[in-house]
């Protein structure tokens, strides 16, 4: 069973779009969003700690459990952004090497917490050597480590842009987890596309745009280079976030 979608959280709990993007889609936490301290405690203990302790550590021999937790915390805080494994090594204590970190991110991905998206490339070796784009499967996992309240985050344009992109990404990777399609990103020099969806020979390019300032040159470059089946914007100037979060992504292919 996958993470709850925006439509399910809205219909069951009356949660607004912005609340869903900030608080994510855990039904057990829906009653706690008016008390952000209790909300964060619930996500930390009932979701994060329970998943790491019971789903990962009980089934998989882990030499450095503390490092696994630190890897998740850092990755969740940077959800929606590119972060090299070498930079992660510099930020973590007793980090070992990049192979260990990559293995931990893979385990966290299998558990539906956090994944590292690879760069879209026709060359498999280049894809595997790329800087990962970190992405949580549920935005509640990112917001636990956000120092801002819901009201402060909505008013902070730069921070809300990151939350918005991570929230859209969380829906995409959660759908991919259930329906088995690949999610990647693309970047070449100054051109970037936030999410590339691939299933069999079908490729979909998606640019997330939370405000009018963000450029879409990357989407045009990707379209001319790879001729995807579909390429579109989610947010300002494209499909509304609400409509996208209510879309069955299988129908895009």
Provide a descriptive summary of the structure in words.
The protein is α+β, with helices and mostly antiparallel strands. It has a domain at 6-181. Helix content is 49%, strand content 15%. It is built from 12 helices and 6 strands. It has helices at residues 6-13, 17-23, 36-57, 65-77, 85-91, 98-110, 124-128, 140-143, 150-155, 157-179, 217-226, 241-245, and strands at 114-117, 133-136, 182-188, 191-199, 202-209, 230-235. The protein has a 4-stranded mixed sheet with strand order 3-4-5-6. A two-stranded antiparallel sheet has the order 1-2. Strand 3 and strand 4 form a beta hairpin. Helix 4 (65-77) packs across helix 6 (98-110). The longest helix has 23 residues, at 157-179.
Number of strands: 6
Radius of gyration, whole Å = 18 Å
Overall shape: globular
Query: What is the H/E string?
Result: HHHHHHEHEHHHEEEHEH
Strand content: 15-25%
User: Average pLDDT across residues?
Assistant: 90
This entry's quaternary arrangement is single chain
Report how far apart the termini are: 22 Å
**Which residue ranges are poorly predicted, with pLDDT under 50 across at least 5 consecutive positions?**
none
Strand order of the largest sheet: 3-4-5-6
Topology, element by element:
Layout: H1 6-13, H2 17-23, H3 36-57, H4 65-77, H5 85-91, H6 98-110, E1 114-117, H7 124-128, E2 133-136, H8 140-143, H9 150-155, H10 157-179, E3 182-188, E4 191-199, E5 202-209, H11 217-226, E6 230-235, H12 241-245
Parallel strand pairs: 5-6
Antiparallel strand pairs: 1-2, 3-4, 4-5
Helix pairs in contact: 4-6
């Amino acid at each position: 069973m996958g993470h709850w979608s925006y439509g399910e959280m809205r219909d069951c709990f009356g949660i607004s779009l912005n609340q869903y993007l900030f608080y994510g889609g855990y039904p057990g936490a829906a009653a706690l969003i008016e008390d952000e301290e209790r909300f964060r405690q619930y996500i930390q203990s009932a979701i994060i700690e329970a998943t790491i302790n019971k789903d990962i550590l009980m089934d998989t021999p882990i030499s450095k459990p503390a490092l696994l937790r630190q890897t998740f915390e850092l990755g969740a805080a940077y959800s929606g952004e590119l972060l090299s494994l070498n930079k992660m090594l510099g930020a973590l204590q007793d980090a070992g090497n990049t192979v260990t970190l990559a293995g931990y991110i893979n385990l966290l991905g299998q558990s539906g917490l956090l994944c590292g998206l690879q760069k879209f490339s026709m060359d498999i070796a280049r894809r595997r050597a790329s800087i990962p784009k970190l992405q949580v499967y549920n935005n509640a996992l990112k917001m636990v480590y956000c120092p801002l309240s819901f009201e402060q985050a909505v008013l902070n344009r730069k921070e809300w842009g990151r939350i918005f992109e991570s929230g859209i990404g969380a829906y995409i990777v959660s759908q991919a987890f259930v329906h088995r399609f690949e999610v990647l990103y693309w970047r070449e020099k100054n051109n970037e596309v936030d999410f590339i969806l691939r299933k069999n020979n079908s490729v979909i390019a998606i640019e997330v745009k939370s405000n009018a300032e963000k450029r879409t040159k990357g989407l045009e470059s990707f379209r001319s280079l790879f001729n995807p089946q579909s390429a579109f914007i989610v947010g300002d100037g494209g499909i509304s976030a609400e409509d996208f979060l209510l879309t069955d992504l299988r129908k895009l292919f």
